[in-house]
Write a structure and sequence with these properties.
It contains six helices and nine strands. The protein has 236 residues and is of the alpha/beta class.
Length: 236
C-alpha cells in the first residue's frame, strides 16, 4: 500500500519537474507487454532512474547503487518504494532479489552498463546481469535508449558517509527515451559465451535506440529553428 502511494507521488513530482525544466519525450516503438518484464537501459546520468519510472504507472523495482540509499530522506523514499540496492563489487544479493521480484510477477529495471556512461561520451561495455536475469526468470527484456545533451551534464562531488563520489546529473535540457520492442531470449543461462553474446546484442539494440533518440532530438531542434526563422521573416 505505502509503496504504491510513494511510487505514484514520486512519479507525479518527477513528471512535474520534467515538464518545468526538461524537454522530455518518450518515443514508443511498442507498448509495454503485460506481466513481469525487465526494462534495460543505458545510463548517461544519475537522473536516469527518475526518468525510467515514468515508463509505467505501476510500481517497478529499479536496481540503484546502494550509496543512494544512504542519503537522508531520499534513501528512506527508495527503501519504502522497495527499489533494490546494488552494492559495488557485491551484486549477487541484488541479482537474487531482482530474480525473486520477477518470478513474483513484478517489473524490474536496471542499467546494463552497470555504471554511468563515460563523461566524454559513448557507452560502457554491457554487464551480463540483464541477460542472466531474463533467462533465469523467463521474462522479456524491454530495451530503452536514453539520449541527452552531454554538454549540459552537471558533474557534482557528493560526500556520502565521509567518502567523496563523482556524480553526473542532468538537471535541465532536452531528454529522449526510446522504448523498443520486447526481446525474447532463449538458451542456457549457464552457457557463458551465449550469455555474453546476447548481452552484446541487447546492448547494441539499446545503442541503436539511443541514436534514434538523438536523431529525433536533432529533427525537433531543426523544426524549431525553421519555425523561428519563418516567424521572423513574416514579421519583417
Amino acid at each position: 500500500m505505502i509503496r504504491g502511494v510513494l511510487y505514484t507521488a514520486g512519479r507525479i513530482l518527477i513528471a512535474l519537474y520534467t515538464r518545468l525544466f526538461m524537454e522530455l519525450d518518450i518515443l514508443w516503438q511498442a507498448p509495454l507487454p503485460p506481466g513481469p518484464k525487465l526494462i534495460v537501459a543505458n545510463h548517461p546520468s544519475f537522473t536516469d532512474p527518475f526518468a525510467i519510472s515514468l515508463l509505467s504507472s505501476r510500481p517497478m523495482a529499479i536496481l540503484i547503487t546502494s550509496l543512494a540509499f544512504l542519503v537522508p530522506i531520499f534513501g528512506f523514499y527508495l527503501r519504502k518504494s522497495r527499489h533494490i540496492p546494488v552494492t559495488p563489487g557485491a551484486g549477487r544479493p541484488a541479482f537474487d532479489e531482482a530474480l525473486r521480484r520477477l518470478k513474483a510477477g513484478e517489473t524490474v529495471a536496471l542499467f546494463i552498463e552497470g555504471t554511468t556512461s563515460p563523461q566524454e561520451g559513448g557507452f560502457c561495455p554491457p554487464r551480463t546481469g540483464a541477460v542472466r536475469l531474463a533467462l533465469s526468470a523467463g521474462v522479456p527484456i524491454i530495451p530503452v535508449g536514453i539520449h541527452l545533451v552531454r554538454e549540459r551534464l552537471h558533474i557534482i562531488e557528493a560526500k556520502i558517509k565521509d567518502e567523496k563520489h563523482t556524480e553526473q546529473w542532468y538537471l535541465r535540457g532536452p531528454l529522449r527515451m526510446v522504448v523498443g520492442e520486447p526481446i525474447h531470449l532463449e538458451g542456457d543461462v549457464e552457457d557463458h559465451s551465449h550469455v555474453k553474446a546476447e548481452s552484446q546484442r541487447v546492448m547494441q539494440r539499446i545503442i541503436d535506440l539511443a541514436h534514434e533518440g538523438k536523431r529525433q532530438l536533432q529533427e525537433s531542434a531543426l523544426r524549431r529553428e525553421r519555425k523561428s526563422r519563418r516567424m521572423v521573416a513574416e514579421a519583417i
